[in-house]
Amino acid sequence: MFGRLFKKELKYLIIGAGSTGATFASFLYSAGKDVTLISKYESVVKTAKEKGGIKLISAVKGEKRYNVKVLTEGQYRGKADVIILCIRTPDILSAIPFIEKVSHSKTIVTSIANGFGIGYALKKRLKNVQVINSVFVGKCRWYNREDVEYLQQREYVEFQFSPCGNISNNILDRMEKDFAQSGMNTHLIPEKQFYELAFERLITRSPFEACCIYYGINAHQITDEKEKTFKQLCSELLLLAKAMNINVRDGFLDEYYDNFEKYKERDEANVYSSILNDMKIGQKSEIDFLFFIVIQLAKEYKIELPTYFMIANKFQNYNTLDEYFAK
User: Nearest-CA neighbor of 243 among 199, 209, 205, 286?
Assistant: First the structure.
C-alpha cells in the first residue's frame, strides 16, 4: 500500500459539502486531482449530479461549475489516501466510524475546523491512521443552496499544515505540491511552529467566547469586571502555553487587546459569540476545542487555571471532549 502512494495520484476525500468543503474540493479538482466530496444530504448529491457538479464563484478562480464527485457516505467505495474534515467540531465524532471504514494504514487525516488541539484529539481516537494538523483560510459561504453554488470571497486561499508526530515527508511534500498546483498558498510548517500559531489563534477566540457565555453578553458589553475576567482568561492561557513549552511572541497579548478594542467598535460585533448563539438555539457548539480543550490540557500539565475552571463548572454539561479519549 505504501508503495502505491508513490506511483499513483493521491485520492482525496473531503468530508463536508458546506462552503469550505466545496471550495476545497473545487480547487483540487481544478488542478486535475482525484477528489470526492461527501455530503450528508442526498438532495445536495442529487442536485450536483443534475447540474453537472458544484458551482464556485471565487475571487481566485472566477466563476465556474466543477464536476466534482459528490456522494453520501453510503455511496462511497474504496479507500482514501488523504481525508480532510470540513465539518464543525461537534460533527467530528459521528464521522469517525466512516473515516475508519475508508482509511488504510497510511491514510492521512486532518480537520480544518475552528479550535485548538483537534489533531491531538483525533490522534488519540484514530489509532490506525496518520493525523496531521492544518488550518484553512478562504472566506467561504453558501450562495445558493438549492443549486449547490458557493462563494469564495478572499483574494487568496491559504492552507497551512504540519505533521503530528512522525509521518513520511514524501507524502507531505506530495500534498504540498498538489495544494499549490490547485491555487492555494500552501505552507508545510514544523509542528512546533504550527502549535505556536494555533495557540495565538486560541487566545483570540477562547477568552472572548468563554466570557460571553459566562455572562451572556456580546462584545460591546465586555467592560469593567467582565473585562477583568476576559483578561484573566487571556493571562491563564499564557500560563498554559508556558507549561506546554509553546512560545507566544512578546507583545502579542497587548497587540490583541488593542485589536479587540477596535473590534468592539464594529457594528457586526454587536452579536453574541458563536458558542452562545448555538446554545440559545439548542444546537451543538464548538465549545470543546475553543474552551474545554484548555481544561483538558491544564489537567494533563497539572497547572491551575482558576477562571477557566470556574466557567467550566457552570457549563460542564456541554463538555463532550472526553469522548475523544474514551476509546
Answer: 199
State residue 4's pLDDT score.
47
Q: In the chain, which residues have pLDDT < 70?
A: 1-7, 267-270, 326-327
Closest CA to 117 of 300, 273, 253: 300
CB 19 within 8 A of CB 39: no
Domain positions in the chain: 4-189, 201-325
CB 116 within 8 A of CB 201: yes
pLDDT digits (tens, 9 = 90+) for 104-154: 989 999 999 889 999 989 988 898 899 999 999 989 998 888 899 999 999
Query: What's the whole-model pTM score?
Result: 0.90
In CATH, the number for domain 4-189 is 3.40.50.720
Q: What is the pLDDT of residues 75-88, one digit of tens each?
A: 999 999 999 999 99
- If you count them, how many residues does the chain have? 327
Retrieve residue 120's grid coordinates: 491531538
Identify the CATH assignment for 201-325 out of 3.30.9.10, 1.10.1040.10, 1.10.760.10, 1.20.1290.10: 1.10.1040.10
| Radius of gyration (C-alpha) of the chain in whole angstroms | 20
Distance in angstroms (rounded) separating the CA atoms of residues 273 and 165: 33
Helical residues (DSSP H) of 86-168, grouped into ranges: 92-101, 118-125
d(CA 116, CA 205): 10
Residues 6+ apart with CB under 8 A from 93: 320, 323, 324
